[in-house]
Amino acid sequence: MKRFDFDVAIIGGGSGGYAAARTAAAAGLKTVVIEGGREVGGLCILRGCMPTKAMLYAAEVKHLAEHAATWGVRAGKVTFDFAKVMARKGEQIKDFADFRVKQLNDGRFKFIRSYASFLDAHTLLLSNGKRLTAKYFVIATGSRVAPSPLPQLDEVGYLTSDDAVALKKLPKSLIILGGGAIACEFAQFFQRFGVKVTLIQRSDNLLREFDADAGIEVAKVFRREGMTVFTGTKLVDAKRIGKLKSVSFEQNGKRHTVAAEEILFALGRVPNTASLGLENTGVKAEAGRIVTNGKMQTSAPHIFAAGDVCGPHEIVHIAIQQGETAVHNILKPKSPRRMDYRLLISVVFTDPQVAIVGLTEKEAVARKIPFLAASYPFNDHGKSLIMEAKDGFVKLLANPKTGEIIGGECVGPSGGELIHEIITAMAKRMTVQELAATPHYHPTLAEIWTYPAEELVEKIPTAR
């Protein structure tokens, strides 16, 4: 019987990799984590969820202070110190990252700072020149910023989301390419800190992963706050015009050119697999993305994957679940656990926030899943009127026969928090009748969910 250096080797020390490592170590497996990145902590802590939310909250506080007169409060002229905004963000991220480094070095498993690539299906070559073998592997190397779609953009130069969270000073004007969560969050952050922002999106609506009504609502608010938003575009050129950078695009058959001090490229990320030597393992990848089954197992049965490197959803809590699932299936192959994306959640931390769980109308139609939907606006809701938070709505999708809730969407104040009521309801497979009958305190934002629930109860006889 062949002896290996480790029972399981985990490549990547981000959220998915760490979840796999602690699960494996707790079960008594001899475990190693290999992390080659310049910093330790993973995308969420270092350049994703945490820094962007810290920045966005600062922008929200500034925005509320500027509009304090709405509630009869005199705040005077609101000013800011951008260096302090970013310094506070940096201090918080350092605390989060330091804690992750401490966890990785606490002795439960071996932690190696090195890049790794497969020499064969059981052997890794480390960038420090050493080799190690393992019986099982979990690949959790995350993602990197996608390459630009225009060679001219590379020549002109641009910021990425990685650069944007580390800026020392604000540009006076900014073109943002993209209309997904990353693009929209940065767009509102920069707009609220006084940058003249132009947002250029390829699809017909912002946030194309959501139903169109969400993107339309966010675009309405962006424009009201002074942002220029173009949708339904095709990029054709980029060049320098004096000290400015310009982008040309087509929209409705017409060519437009916009210029700004800087360009932020926010058209997504791609799996970080190029240097792994997957061709030596039998692991199948499509366009760089590792293909896994529901057990997080690759086409090489002893190699698993978790997180952005395999998808299908690049969300940190899912990466953690995938890492835990992978190790469970290494430990207990005869009683496997499979990932279930029925309760898939997405949140965009713009103002209004956008959050969904389960099915959208668009997805239900595409998958031919029958549903009934009902929505209710925040501009007719007591607590949101008090808050002057009148943009957006909530929406529920239900099974037309049983009334079971199969999807929820919230575009509005604290949407990322409010969606958790529907997550809980769906986790327990509640019906709209049960939700409508659940007591809700008045006046609260949460009670808004009872209105679409009551409307659906009237439409579904079995739910009454």
Write structural notes for this entry:
- α3 (49-66) runs parallel beside α7 (181-192).
- The protein is built from 14 helices and 23 strands.
- The protein has 464 residues and is α/β, with parallel strands linked by helices.
- The protein has 3 domains: 6-55 and 92-145 and 270-331, 3-Layer(bba) Sandwich (FAD/NAD(P)-binding domain); 151-267, FAD/NAD(P)-binding domain (3-Layer(bba) Sandwich), CATH 3.50.50.60; 352-463, Enolase-like, domain 1.
Q: Can you give keywords for this protein?
A:
alpha/beta, FAD/NAD(P)-binding domain, Enolase-like, domain 1, 3 domains, seven-stranded mixed β-sheet, five-stranded antiparallel β-sheet, 14 helices
Terminal residue distance? 63 Å
Number of helices: 14
Domain unit count: 3
Low-pLDDT segments: none
CATH superfamily annotation of the largest domain:
FAD/NAD(P)-binding domain
CATH domain topology of the largest domain: FAD/NAD(P)-binding domain
Q: How much helicity do the residues have?
A: 25-40%
For the record, what CATH class of the largest domain applies?
Alpha Beta
The coarse overall form would be globular
Strand content: 25-35%
Q: What's the structural blueprint in terms of helices and strands?
A:
Layout: E1 6-11, H1 15-26, E2 31-35, H2 43-46, H3 49-66, H4 82-104, E3 110-113, E4 116-120, E5 123-126, E6 131-139, E7 143-145, H5 151-156, H6 161-164, E8 173-177, H7 181-192, E9 196-200, H8 212-224, E10 228-230, E11 233-241, E12 244-251, E13 254-260, E14 262-265, E15 269-271, E16 285-286, E17 289-290, E18 303-305, H9 316-331, E19 345-348, E20 353-358, H10 361-366, E21 372-377, H11 382-387, E22 393-398, E23 405-412, H12 415-427, H13 432-437, H14 450-459
Parallel strand pairs: 1-2, 1-6, 2-3, 6-18, 8-9, 8-14, 9-10
Antiparallel strand pairs: 4-5, 5-6, 7-15, 11-12, 12-13, 16-17, 19-20, 20-23, 21-22, 22-23
